[in-house]
């Protein structure tokens, strides 16, 4: 952003909204509908050593067979915490512990499980929408500051319209991605 308070950085807002979309697509990629994938655990965070840490930083995630994901936890004192984090993640997977190895049998996708996954996907999409709206609010705040610094009302309306159009376009992309993912999940 430039030093001029009358400049509104639309490119920065666009970049940040695009970042929210990239994050959403990463979360959607973790919702596998067919084969097991280690990326299913990417959004799961573990309370390790006093801070929230991704599972792949406390153990090795493997996919030994098409319906099984394993996590070989490096520190055996964290096994219980990793198991609890997976159980409470909303993935609908019931972990089984064998020493420092946590096995995650991926259930066959029945109708109920598919509906659960569509709800998880909808939650991810809503989080993305909230991020986009927060970025919109930041843009509107920039416009208010510029107005206080001497921006004309016509320019203010122009910038507000542009920020709102950017937001609406991004929300449509989120909705389209959600619709596609839910259709993919529900496909038998």
TrEMBL record:
Gene, per the UniProt record: frr
Gene Ontology terms, MF aspect: ribosomal large subunit binding
Alphabetical list of Pfam families matching this protein: RRF
Keyword Protein biosynthesis: yes
TM annotation in the entry: none
Protein name: Ribosome-recycling factor
PANTHER family, alphabetized: MITOCHONDRIAL RIBOSOME RECYCLING FACTOR PSEUDO 1, RIBOSOME RECYCLING FACTOR
Domain Ribosome recycling factor, first and last residues per copy: 24-186
UniProt keywords, alphabetically: Cytoplasm, Protein biosynthesis
Function comment: Responsible for the release of ribosomes from messenger RNA at the termination of protein biosynthesis. May increase the efficiency of translation by recycling ribosomes from one round of translation to another.
Protein source organism: Planktomarina temperata RCA23
Gene3D superfamilies registered for this protein in UniProt: 3.30.1360.40, Ribosome-recycling factor
Subcellular location(s) per record: Cytoplasm
Gene Ontology biological process: cytoplasmic translational termination
GO-annotated cellular components: cytosol
């Amino acid at each position: 952003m430039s030093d001029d308070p009358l400049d509104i950085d639309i490119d920065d807002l666009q970049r940040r909204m695009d970042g929210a979309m990239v994050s959403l697509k990463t979360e959607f990629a973790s919702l596998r509908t067919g084969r097991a994938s280690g990326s299913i655990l990417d959004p799961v965070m573990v309370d390790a050593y006093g801070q929230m840490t991704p599972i792949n930083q406390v153990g090795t995630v493997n996919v030994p067979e098409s319906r099984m994901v394993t996590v070989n936890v490096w520190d055996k004192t964290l096994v219980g915490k990793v198991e609890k984090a997976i159980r409470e993640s909303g993935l609908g997977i019931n972990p089984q512990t064998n020493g420092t190895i946590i096995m995650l049998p991926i259930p066959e996708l029945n109708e109920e499980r598919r509906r659960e996954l569509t709800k998880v996907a909808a939650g991810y999409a809503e989080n993305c929408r909230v991020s986009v709206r927060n970025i919109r609010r930041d843009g509107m705040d920039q416009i208010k500051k510029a107005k206080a610094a001497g921006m004309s009302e016509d320019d203010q309306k122009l910038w507000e319209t542009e920020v709102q159009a950017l937001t609406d376009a991004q929300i449509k992309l989120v909705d389209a991605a959600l619709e596609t993912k839910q259709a993919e999940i529900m496909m038998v």
